[in-house]
Amino acid sequence: MQAAPWYLILNGKSAGDDAVRDAVTQVREKGQGLQVRVTWEAGDAERYVREAIAAQAPLLIAGGGDGTLSEVAEAMAYTGQDATRLPALALLPLGTANDFATATAVPTDPLAALQLPAHTPARSIDLLRVEGDGKVHWCANLASGGFGTEVTVETHDGLKKMLGGLAYVITGVAKLGRIEPIQAHIHGEGFDWQGGFIALGIGNGRQAGGGQQLCPEALLDDGQLDLTVVPELSGEVMSTLGTLFSEGKHAALEQVAERARLRELWIEAAQPLTLNLDGEPLQARRFHVQCVAGRVRMHLPAKTPLLRG
């Protein structure tokens, strides 16, 4: 009896990628069944996830950037099924910056990425559960707010296509002269902070927005979220912004940021603020963010630094 095929849920922007087509062909020629489903409009990913589950597919591959990964993971979480009853998850990185893939060392070569699940076991990883607009959203990589979020949201698609991650840097430089701090109260067990911030990172993963390492010590399987709050800065430390956002060095964060590791937190803002959930902007005045341990199983390189041990 032939094993159930894998499912590749491919972002429509990459449907014509010749390297992806060649990689799919090679995987099939080696005997692995692989169904390809291309997303075109909102709701497609969830529909394809349910189709794959009904077909008892052992593996779902998110083909796209961080947003596509989160969209597929969110659809899996929405089923309500335990991680052990869901297909495993994998990533074919095809985004602009591929922040999750970069941090976890998932290969960007399409064939290598598609072959990874055959060589590494699936590991349980956490997801962020974000409640903010009366609805529940899920995030696989990182939720960000403030300066970094504005850069990511405002970077033009055409610029991203031409310049890749450099597009975020260019947009960020353009915004440096007009950073407005966001007033908020952020609290959780053992942590209570209030004031104006210019950048906020809530990490399951470590980086977003083209390499902004706002949560450089986050782990995907520790059952906790990593919080970094960069408060409004005095003139003496404004010079660290270039290092903070372009290289994400630990030293810069230690100088200017408030950091914590929590199972859940609440954010209450004076004005509606935008959280960027892996490219998906969500606006509200109050957010509740939880780290849900082991929500899905994912194939990642054995030596990724984002897994314990």
3D architecture notes:
The protein has 309 residues and is of the alpha+beta class. The chain has 2 domains: 6-125, Rossmann fold, CATH 3.40.50.10330; 136-294, Tumour Suppressor Smad4, CATH 2.60.200. Helix content is 28%, strand content 35%. It has 10 helices and 13 strands. It has helices at 18-29, 44-54, 66-78, 99-104, 110-115, 147-154, 157-163, 166-175, 241-246, 250-256; strands at residues 6-11, 34-39, 59-64, 88-93, 122-131, 136-139, 142-146, 182-188, 191-203, 225-231, 258-262, 264-277, 280-299. The strands form 2 sheets. Strands 5, 6, 7, 8, 9, 10, 11, 12 and 13 form a 9-stranded antiparallel sheet that branches. Strands 2-1-3-4 form a 4-stranded parallel sheet, sandwiched between helices. Helix 6 (147-154) crosses helix 8 (166-175). It is elongated and about 60 Å long. Mean pLDDT is 86; it is low at 158-176.
Write the layout of secondary structure elements.
Layout: E1 6-11, H1 18-29, E2 34-39, H2 44-54, E3 59-64, H3 66-78, E4 88-93, H4 99-104, H5 110-115, E5 122-131, E6 136-139, E7 142-146, H6 147-154, H7 157-163, H8 166-175, E8 182-188, E9 191-203, E10 225-231, H9 241-246, H10 250-256, E11 258-262, E12 264-277, E13 280-299
Parallel strand pairs: 1-2, 1-3, 3-4
Antiparallel strand pairs: 5-6, 5-13, 7-9, 7-12, 8-9, 8-12, 9-10, 10-11, 12-13
Question: What is this structure, in a nutshell?
Answer:
With 309 residues, the chain is α+β, with helices and mostly antiparallel strands. 28% of the residues lie in helices and 35% in strands.
